[in-house]
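Example record for the data management plan.
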Amino acid sequence: MPAHTDVLAVILGGGRGSRLYPLTSMRSKPAVPIAGKYRLIDIPISNCINSGIFKIHVLTQFNSVSLHRHITNTYKFDAFHTGFVEVLAAEQTPTSEAWYQGTADAFRKQLFEIQAARVDHVLVLAGDHLYRMNYSSMIAHHLKTDADITVAVQPVLTEEAHRFGILKREPDGRIVDFVEKPKDQATLERMKSREDGARPFLGSMGIYIFKITALIDLLTEHPDYDDFGSDVIPHAIRHRPVQGFDFEGYWEDIGTIRSFYDTNLKLTVPNAPFNFYDSKAPIYTHSRFLPGSIVTDSRIDAALITEGCVIDRAEIIHSIVGLRSLVGAGSVVKDSILMGADYYDTRPHDIPMGIAEGCHIEGAILDKNVRVGRGSQIRPFPRGTELDCGSYVVQDGIVVVPKGTILPPDTRIGPSA
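Corresponding structural encoding:
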């Protein structure tokens, strides 16, 4: 695929991700593991590479060490390649000592580096969405219409419209109105853009292409505009040519523990809505030289099992089993996500890494390097339950065990514990 040498991709990777707590207590949201072996940041970077975009900046700020390490270890172009994947961390400068105040403010504070890439267009991406998209089609639409800004839009169901920023588009493709999460019926009627009874609305996906000149003007002329979605785009719609580009493929915003949990478990079945196995547009990640997994006398059904695991006489049902996971004899893992481990545990320990013998894990997310003692039980709470119990957190009924937690033998977690 020809490289888009006149396009710079900038991925927003600095959010606090409080709705994904405790998965974000020690890492930024784009660094959260997904599908057992990837990280969320791998999605937009892989989409860029598969689209021929090789100039990539990642803006980071909060809990960013593991994200920096992953990007540095994973995305390396050789000396004969002009591309780069470069981290731009929040920093104090002579003109500003403040953190990024929003998505647009992050761009404003890094405007010198963005201009130094010497491109004509800037592609703005989020670091926490799951989708596969060839940006070349969007770039072609942007160039053909000579828009200052092009916004990727997706058809939205009537009953889902209140969750999105809804855009009104004219027949010529120009976006003329924007309402954030509309609720009243009159506004909904006004914002219909499609002749589709089920999906009459267009929602913003948070993916934008700017002419570099328009981006510079908007950021410098309006220094109080801190956010693209709330400030810059609504203003630009009123004063500049802004186009909408249709995307009807799978797209999921991994913004909450519930969406993270549901999205992961959908990957365990045949014909999953998102396919990590597309040979023409693969999702890249850090190469690990791990052995194949060993499974002994176990029942496995609708499970995604990654490399380096050892499963001994256990039952794994509708679950994700992450890298280097160890599941002991007689244990049951059901409707759960095991993120695995960063390393193999070679030192003696009263409770070995992973899940010991005779455990029952259901409706849970176990972050990396968790140790679950023999005979422990974890069961889900009713939906809507919210608890913070120190060694575990319950979000919308899902039990989340933070990274590195040690659960003693015969631990009981659940509504009747």
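Summary line stored alongside the record: The mean pLDDT is 93.
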